[in-house]
């Protein structure tokens, strides 16, 4: 049996995705049950407990498959979007609803219980959250869970022309390991969120992104960077902006920042990590 990345394959010794039968050994194989995320962002943790490490987050409206539910209120799921596997609170999930028609195209937007900005919001959705618009009432889009300012939404098929500009919107957002929203996110989430907004498929973690986009470089040339290049270090990724600066969610600064590429390369190198590759998403 071949070894598979457990971050991307629902596979344990006692239970595995039925699609993996014949590829892995498990005591039981099951077909996942479809569901969708009903909260602004649902944590995917490494283990079924609230203090377990946060690996990533599932955004409102994203679809998942549930392979197991525990009596303690946890579900072992796989995200349909990027394939990530983890433990999610069962209460954050609900039945599949109407197909998504729009996505949040701003940094964040509120969901209101009625078509009025004077009502107390019920949720705060981040970039790329998916919604099914049922009707338009004045400037508002009506969804299953409330009303959203229609100008903050874009059809799911509409793509952002400049994905680097999407990343720039997150400047000042606190760094959060495993985070994937405008409330907090990490370096690889910033890349993924920005690329997905532009219609470019992107895996979740920086090592996966480097495998997908990176080209090893023996002699890193700062002057050769162009807008949209990805710069990889071991465990970190940044986005070149084409003017000698980069934008990245930085654990050093503990927020998303724009800074001179030369300064970041020197600082990270001094800490013991050299640039490993440079890539360009297509």
From TrEMBL:
GO terms for molecular function: cysteine-type peptidase activity. InterPro entries: NLP_P60_dom (IPR000064), Papain-like_cys_pep_sf (IPR038765), PG_Endopeptidase_C40 (IPR051794), SH3_16 (IPR041382). Belongs to the peptidase C40 family. Residues 157-282 form the NlpC/P60 domain. PROSITE patterns: NLPC_P60. This is NlpC/P60 family protein. It comes from the Bacteria. Signal peptide: none annotated. It holds the Pfam family NLPC_P60. PANTHER family: NLP_P60 DOMAIN-CONTAINING PROTEIN-RELATED, PEPTIDOGLYCAN DL-ENDOPEPTIDASE CWLO. Gene3D superfamilies: endopeptidase domain like (from Nostoc punctiforme), SH3 Domains. SUPFAM superfamilies: Cysteine proteinases. Keywords: Hydrolase, Protease, Thiol protease. GO terms for biological process: proteolysis. The keyword Methyltransferase does not apply.
């Amino acid at each position: 049996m071949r070894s598979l990345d457990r971050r991307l394959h629902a596979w344990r010794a006692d239970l595995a995705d039925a699609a993996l039968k014949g590829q892995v050994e498990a005591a039981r194989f099951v077909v996942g049950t479809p569901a969708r995320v009903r909260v602004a962002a649902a944590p995917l943790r490494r283990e079924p407990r609230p203090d377990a490490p946060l690996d990533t987050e599932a955004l409102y409206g994203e679809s998942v498959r549930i392979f197991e539910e525990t009596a303690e209120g946890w579900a072992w799921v796989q995200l349909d979007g990027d394939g990530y596997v983890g433990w999610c609170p069962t209460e954050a999930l609900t039945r599949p609803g109407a197909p998504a028609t729009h996505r949040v195209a701003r940094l964040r937007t509120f969901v209101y219980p009625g078509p009025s900005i004077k009502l107390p919001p019920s949720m705060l959705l981040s970039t790329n959250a998916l919604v099914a618009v049922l009707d338009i009432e004045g400037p508002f889009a009506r969804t299953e869970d409330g009303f959203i300012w229609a100008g903050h939404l874009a059809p799911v098929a509409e793509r952002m022309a400049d994905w680097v500009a999407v990343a720039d919107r997150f400047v000042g957002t606190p760094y959060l390991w495993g985070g994937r929203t405008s409330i907090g996110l990490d370096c690889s989430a910033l890349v993924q969120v920005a690329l997905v907004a532009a219609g470019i498929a992107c895996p979740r973690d920086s090592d996966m992104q480097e495998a997908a986009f990176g080209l090893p470089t023996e002699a890193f040339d700062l002057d050769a960077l162009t807008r949209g290049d990805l710069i990889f270090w071991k465990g970190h990724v940044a986005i070149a902006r084409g003017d000698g600066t980069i934008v990245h969610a930085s654990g050093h600064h503990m927020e998303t920042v724009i800074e001179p590429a030369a300064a970041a390369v020197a600082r990270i190198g001094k800490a013991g990590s050299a640039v490993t590759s440079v890539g360009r998403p297509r």
